[in-house]
Specification:
Layout (H helix, E strand, L loop, with lengths): L1 H12 L5 H7 L2 H11 L8 H20 L11 H12 L5 H8 L3 H6 L10 H9 L6 H12 L4 H18 L1
């Protein structure tokens, strides 16, 4: 219920500063419920909420890695669920945040594949990253191009999208 209230509060104000929204963003279990709700929404108006939630997921995964937090459920997977929502936003400007999260630690890095980086489309994402001043832009572009140069990569992408939607819906 708290995730529903927080989402409603965000819709009313488009701000993440309300106590309802902050409480949900601070709670890994509530964030999972929020992601499930967000699947049924138009995501563009929710961009700020998704980006702040992604930051919280990165902080949570870092705390788990450092041993300053414990996970009594499967909430550690939230970073991928929220990254999928960033993917669904379809804005290439989120690529640097995804790349930074990929290198948060070994656990995140091995599971955050190239699939997450092309929400804006393959060509648009590569064009964006090649034309940005990000210090690792050539490495990011090569990573994406390397994965998607495989003959079946776009079919794998479609299957991945379906799987991610199912994972979030069933959480």
């Amino acid at each position: 219920m708290r995730a529903e209230q927080a989402l409603q509060k965000f819709k009313e104000s488009a701000a993440v500063t309300s106590s309802e929204v902050q409480a949900v963003l601070a709670n890994p279990a509530e964030r999972q419920a929020l992601y499930k709700l967000l699947l049924g929404e138009q995501l563009r108006p929710m961009a700020t909420l998704i980006r702040v939630a992604f930051q919280k997921e990165a902080e949570y995964r870092d705390a788990l890695w450092e041993g300053t937090a414990e996970d009594d459920g499967d909430y550690y997977e939230g970073i991928y669920r929220c990254a999928f929502l960033l993917y669904c936003l379809g804005t290439p400007e989120d690529i640097p945040a995804l790349w930074q999260a990929k290198y948060l630690n070994m656990d995140v890095g091995t599971s955050m594949g190239a699939e997450f980086f092309i929400g804006a489309g393959l060509d648009e994402s590569i064009k964006f990253i090649e034309n940005t001043d990000h210090p690792e832009s050539s490495e990011i572009a090569a990573y994406i191009q390397g994965w998607f140069s495989q003959p079946d990569a776009m079919q794998w992408q479609k299957t991945w999208e379906e799987d991610m939607r199912s994972i979030i819906s069933d959480a």
